[in-house]
Amino acid sequence: MTALLEAKGLEIHFGGVVAASDVNLQIHEGKNLAIIGPNGAGKTTFLNICTGYLKPSAGQVFFNGKGITRKSPREITRLGVARAFQIPQLFGEHTALENLLIAAAARERRWAPFTRLGQIPERAEMMHLLEMVNCVHVADRPVEELPEGQRKLIDIAVALALKPKLLFMDEPTSGVASSEKFAVLDIVAKALTESKVTSVFVEHDMGIVERFADEVAVWNRGEVLHRGMPDDILSHADVVRDVIGEEI
Amino acid sequence: MKMKLLCGVAGALTLALSSVVLAADKPDQLQVGVTAFLSGPASVFGEPAKAAAEMMVAEMNASGGIGGVPLKTYFVDEGAGGEAVLAEYRRLVQDVEVDAMFASISSGNCNKIAPLAEDLKVLNFMWDCGTQRIFEENSYRYVFRTQGHATPEMLSSVLYLLKTKPDFKSIAVVNQDYAWGRESWKMFSAALKAMKPDVQIVAEFFPKFGAPDFSTEISRLQALRPDVIVSTSWGGDLDTFVRQAAQRGLTNTSTLVLPLAESSLERLGKALPAGHIVGTRGDHYFLHPERKSDLAFSGFVEAFKEKTGAYPIYPVFHMSQALNALKAAYEKAIAENGGDWPEREQVVDAMAGLSFAGLGREVRIREDNQGIEDQLLGTTIHVDGHEFAVLDNMMMFDGDELTTPVGQESVSWLEQLTPEFVGKVKVEAFSHGS
Amino acid sequence: MNLQLIALAVFDGVAYAALVFMVAVGLTLIFGVLRILNVAHGSFYAIGAYVVASVGGAIFAAGWSPWLAFPLMLIAAAVVGIVLGGLIERLLLRRIYDKEEALQILVTFAVFMILEDVQRLVWGVQPYFEATALQSLGNIQVFGVYYTVYQLILLPLVALAVLAGLRLFLRHTLSGRLILAVTEDREAATAIGIDTDKIYLMTFMLGAALAAFGGALASATTSVLPGIGADMIVLSFAVAATAGLGQIEGAALAALLIGLGRSFAVYLMPELEVLIPYLIMLLVLLWRPEGLFGVTQTRKI
Amino acid sequence: MTFMSLVPRLAIPLLLIAVALLPFLAPWSKVMLTLALAKGLAVLGIVVLLHAGQVSFGHALFFAVAAYSAAFLGQAFGGGELVSMVLIGVASAVVVGLLVGLFVVRYRYIFFGMLNLAFSMIVFSVLEKFYHYTGGSDGLQVARPLVLGIEMERPAFESLLFYGGLVIAVIVAWAVHRYFDSPIGHMLKTIKTNETRLEYLGVSARRVLLVGYLVSAALCGLGGVLMAVAQGIVTPEYAWWIRSGELVFIAILGGAGSVSGAFVGALVYEVVRTYASAFAGDVWQMILGFFLLGIILYAPRGLIGVYGSFMGRIGSNTASGKEAKRRAMEAAE
Question: Which GO molecular function, any one, fits this protein according to its record (chain C) (predicted)?
Fold first, then answer.
């Protein structure tokens, strides 16, 4: 099994708070990795480092064997790493479809000034993506008017529109009503499989982790404490005490 | 296509309208547009000129107007900016159809308006602006200047300085940074270097137009100690400079030469000490040595002081010249037209060689449409009865001798002057009491 | 350039910097708290100057003591700050705190345009000059050059006093601490129950009063005429931006930098005089985008 | 389709025809309208940046750069040629736009505005100070240029400028409209709403903004050249901060972000300004100030927004009310 992404010895701290301390992690192609851990454990920081939003004070990140530690989010994205956010990062004034079309135009580098966004060749593909995340009925509504749950889905769809090799998702089900969480993740998982995307997702809901993760990594105080198959990890005593206990 | 059709129809319509030629009947009124600064720093000139124009027009109309036709004036604020002035100028000429325009105070506006007036074929008096370039660079049929220009003003200042203070060695300049400040210094220095080749120019400052503070320049000048400091500034800039210079004792060590200070005398009050040289942009002075005992003159001065709270300054004189030039031109044209009201073109023809007098000495229009005006300068003195400096040791220079000859360019003409010119030039002297 | 000239240039620069600081510090204070760049700030400066020049002119002409010039300046500044600043904050700014930045700036731009004409209507267009305060302190000779005590000594002292006073006020009084709290974190301050409305009003009045005080002090050294506000505002923008918006001590240093730059330019390259403030601002901002003392803010995702 | 629902769609052509015919009724207005067009073009440049949520308080810089380039060209060739003036003017605005833009696109909001201000004040000071090259604060004369080698009289030249300007304005407005609807135009808009996401799409927000900045510089430049030849003079005041403020003012007045609003705003502004300064010389700035306050406080979508909701209200009495309102808004933007 080859590592699609590899983090080696990452270090970063904010003031006195250690957000990453000798973090080493390999992400394997074709697997869904869940990251769990208490608040402030450094999970989002890890995502921020891997996608170039933060620069670690020490350590390195490799994607497909290529160093990306000092690269910007833009360069890393262009290498095939996409990201969905805890708070959906969308273009609020644009419609759901337009959000996807902009992503598609970015992917295909459609810079010609007189082609209309609504008429780019990727339109059908994007409609299909919207269908996959069950949002076709809101395609023409500005996303700032949509409920959080739908915005989360569109945020993920925007990331998928880039056809990434690797997708980071920061708490894909937070803000989604608990009765819908599974439905949402079903949709996402289906879309991921369909597009053959490797994913890493930060998650607090252990039910979700259990159902969707192929592997689990446990974070605490900026360190990776454990790593393994969901069943093993979720029954691990320390994990139950430090992470899951807190979650309940 | 549609546009073309529309243009065609409308074009035909305008043609039809304009082909109705109006005979030169005596109009109900003679309309004159006046551009002047009514806002901004130069309103120190525009406001008195406007007040004067209203007084003089009322007086003219009371005595039958021009050829029996009363005058009506329209004022345009030059302070609104060049583009608004031009728009308003067009509106007055094309819409209101004024008979003549007086434009303007600013040389910049004169530069813009002169070619426009020529194209619109409207009689235009450059009633106050000083730039000598307009008639040196182009010739005009419709544009005239009813007063002198910058060259005699600067040349007379240099001559007065050389006559009253022949032994000075060094000079510095503090002028406003805009065309007038730069051009006037170019001419002043050209004339000075030509007539006193050994003069030392120790500093040239062009602080920003409207600068509120000259402290740094004054420190520098105090360290340099030039014998003479010239400044062609005016309005608030001049007032501020003189006050700050006086406060810090610069006026004790250097003689100031201030060609435009006649317009600041009253405002400066006691701040301008005795012994400094003041020019009047012509022979413009509320105590004009030849006119002050003339009842028409002193009556106007008193009435003006009554109305505005201040004595008349040079733009008032310039306004009187423009109005009197208009009157003289129409009267001449009427006479040449056998007593009938003249066509506009006939009035323009009548401008050739016209002579007229406003509040000062007589002015004559030369063949290049430039007015020839005498120049009066003096040295400040403080006397009882005036809360501000007045002029003593006055000299009147003949405008003919000092104005660049027709067809020559001012700076090169000034450069070929010689030190002998100082002695040759004709001067009439007056003292404060005379 | 010899030592004497350097000293002279420094004196001139410091006196100039003192005046600019007074205006810029008010601007930066207002920005720090209200997050509004107040274009009308220059108008407060001009109106402060006009009030002192016209009222002073009247009372000294009536034979009052020239020493009244100094209390008059303080009173004029306070009145302009409280009345004009208060009115503008309550009637206008309060309604636009939730609007876009561009609209906020334009509102103050509109106020600036209105106040320009108000000045013209009230005081006319002729320059006022009222130097009683300056004359009453006399001159002092340094290196054979006469300076006014007012400019060489009083202005820098007043500027230092204002700087020290502001520091004391902000660090050691309740109101001041509240202002600082709002400057540092608006949301948190609101969350813990600080009455931001009151703080905004107070800050705006204080900032406006400082600008008016700058104008009042300047009125003794310069002609007061239409347009002085427009020039002062861009200059104080430059100072505030160079320092880092919201930085009070920084504004003092930036004012000094720009004041000295300007006076040395007059001695060395007079042509560059007007360019200097903007060149300094540009170089500083290119090197440090948030200004000399500004703090970078990152967005949480 | 009722008549009322047709009105919004016809509004712009009707307004265009009205403006085109005005000079026949009032000949003096031709130049005023040309100046309004020139400003409208520059305001369109501001509108482009407003789409990215950025406000430049120094865009008069490009106006001035292009105007002075045209003036220098005219002086160098003793009159010059209108077409080359336009091309060189716009090209120099774009070149300066690139130099300035490379720096300023790294900044946002207040710092973007201030840096632009600083650049424009530097250019302003240089134009004002270096008298021997730039004519100082009095500026440079721009003699009436040849048009494709033909010498023209003033009336014909002014008509050409006006109608030529009108045609160019229509073409440019259409082009900008299309630019806004293109992918890169939409990306420009996302700089306002979510620049982080844009970067996470693999797009350089700076580059997107730089493109917008160059477009806006070119538009300001085009306006500047038109202004220079229409006025026959260029002055440093073209680059002054109040000029830049005026452009932003007009953009908000017309309707922030609206293409046609830029021209409607410029037209209204120019008319109000001309009449206010003619008939209320002492208070024209005050009138404009209150006008601006009223717009921001009571009609933040500008004149275009006022028009849109007005048409909507009329339309709402009819069956197709909503449709009419939507069309009115569409037509307006």
Answer: transmembrane transporter activity
The answer to whether the Cβ–Cβ distance between C102 and D119 falls below 8 Å is no
Query: Mind listing the pLDDT tens digit for each residue in B366-391?
Result: 999 999 999 999 999 999 999 999 99
Contact B301, B333 (CB under 8 A): no
How many domains does the structure of chain A reveal? 1
Q: Show which residues on chain D lie within 8 Å of chain A, measured between beta carbons.
A: 175, 178-179, 181-187, 189-190, 192-194, 196-204
User: Which chains are adjacent to chain B, needing at least 3 Cβ pairs under 8 Å?
Assistant: C, D
Last residue of a domain, one of B372, B393, B411: B372
Q: Could you list the residue range(s) of the whole structural domain that residue B302 is in?
A: 28-148+296-372
- How far off is chain C from B268, nearest CA to CA, in Å? 9
- Which secondary-structure segment (H or E) carries A220? strand A215-220
CB-defined contacts A:D, below 8 A: 92
- Give this prediction's pTM: 0.82
Count the neighbouring beta carbons within 10 Å of the beta carbon of residue A2. Answer: 9
Give the CATH number of domain D3-19+29-332; options: 1.10.10, 1.20.1300, 1.10.3470, 2.40.128: 1.10.3470
**Which residue range is the domain that position A199 belongs to?**
3-247
Write out pLDDT tens, residues A166-218: 888 888 877 777 777 787 778 778 878 877 888 888 888 787 888 888 888 88
| Partner-chain residue, chosen from A90, A114, A117, that has the shortest CB–CB distance to D186 | A117
Q: Cα separation of D131 and D125, whole Å?
A: 11
Two structure tokens written together for B56: 């003089």
B257 plus B405 within the same structural domain: yes
Q: B62 and B33, same structural domain?
A: yes
CB-based contact D128 B208, cutoff 8 Å: yes
State whether D201 and A94 contact (CB < 8 Å).
Answer: no
Residue ranges with strand state E in chain D: 140-141, 233-234
What tens digit of pLDDT does each residue of D214-237 get?
Answer: 999 999 999 999 999 888 888 888
pLDDT for residue C79 is more than 70: yes
The pair of three-digit structure tokens given for residue B182, joined into one six-digit string: 């730069």
**Tokens for D235?**
């002055």
Which residues in chain B touch residue D35, judged by CB atoms under 8 angstroms apart?
83, 87
Q: Which position has the higher pLDDT, B255 or B82? A: B255
Q: Is A45 an interface residue toward C (CB < 8 Å)?
A: no
Q: Which amino acid is residue D330, in one-letter code?
A: E
Mean pLDDT of the residues in chain D: 82
Q: Which of B333, B349, B372 lies at the terminal end of a domain, its last residue?
A: B372
B270 and B310 share one domain: no
- By CB atoms closer than 10 A (0-12, 13-18, 19+), residue B144 is buried
- Of A39-43, B48-52, C137-141, C244-248, which gets the smallest average pLDDT? A39-43
Q: How far is B177 from chain C (nearest CA, A)?
A: 10
The single-letter code of the amino acid at B203 is A
Share of chain A above pLDDT 70, in %: 94
List all chains that touch chain A, counting a touch as 3 or more CB pairs closer than 8 Å.
C, D
Q: Are residues B76 and B210 in the same domain?
A: no
